[in-house]
Fold this sequence. Notes:
The chain is an alpha+beta fold. The chain has eleven helices and ten strands. Among the domains are: 84-181, Endonuclease I-creI; 211-324, Endonuclease I-creI (Roll), CATH 3.10.28.10. The protein has helices at 2-42, 84-98, 114-124, 145-155, 162-174, 202-210, 239-248, 268-278, 287-302, 306-310, 313-323, and strands spanning 49-50, 63-64, 99-101, 105-110, 128-132, 137-142, 212-219, 225-235, 251-255, 260-264. The strands form two sheets. Strands 1, 2, 7, 8, 9 and 10 form a six-stranded antiparallel sheet that branches. A four-stranded antiparallel sheet has the order 3-4-6-5. α2 packs across α4 (145-155), α2 (84-98) packs parallel to α6 (202-210) and α9 (287-302) runs antiparallel to α11 (313-323).
Amino acid sequence: KNIGLLTLLFAGTSSLISFKYFLYYLFKKVIIEIVKKLKQWRKSAGHIYNINGTSETIRNETVITERIKLISVHVPKHLKPLNDDQFGHYLAGLIDGAGHFNKELIIIFHSLDLSLAYFVKKRLGFGKVRKIKDKDTCLLIVTADKGIQKIINLINGKIRTENIYNQIINSIFINNQCIERLDSIENKNFTFNSNKNFKNHWLAGFSDAHSNFQIKIIHDHNKNTEIQLNFHINQKCNNILLLIQQFLGGNISFRKKDNTYDYNSISFGSAKKVINYFDYFHLLSNKHINYLKWRKAYIIIQNKDYLCLANKTGLDKIKKLKDTMN
């Protein structure tokens, strides 16, 4: 009886100890998962794709702190605005970004976009293109009254920046020397576009004038690698940037040194919205090539081939895309 009692006691003790260890193991596992989730939440700005291991990872596994929404790997056929309404929105964006109205219209292009300047000239049927010596710049200049009339008809109700709107009102609608230009203008009331709907070609034109696509590869002191895809616009005023932010997400910052504002898409969620837009409303400048490389980098990241990225193949592809962007 004594032996049976001792055996029973030891068996009970063993079971109790095993149960305690089981609870300890379970508790530890839950705590580790909670800590991991909290660390990921703390980085919920979520615009970073991590290549090497971080404090959130074990055995240098690849971690992504934001869910990448899928896009098509197929690049849409490149198309130009098909009709006057589409071209009018694109032209308004281009003028808002790089135009100036006085008695004539001047649009500034980078020398790499000389073909775009000639395309706009041909579409208008007016103007002349002038290359600026010793500068990476060319100009489209429209002086003919009929040319100005056609432009006003195309962009009426589509201009979004107060600066250009005021230039048009003062130089065309108030200036008595230009009053004869009103004869062929379809609507004598030139209106400002305050609509928050950007589902047209305006942003494509504005971006051809005033944006850039950035691939940033950042190495920290722990030898971790972060990738950021950023769509950037710089402006003197933030009014239009606030509307773009509402449409695409991202953030706006003030650059005190230059007294200007910067829009940055920052997150992969905003990058997806940028791609959704430019896949449908196409850039016509040399920036379209940069956009396609930027888009390709997004696809490499969305594929989430962890082993590929771990041995640097994916990162090398992204570096190559970055290095070939101008």
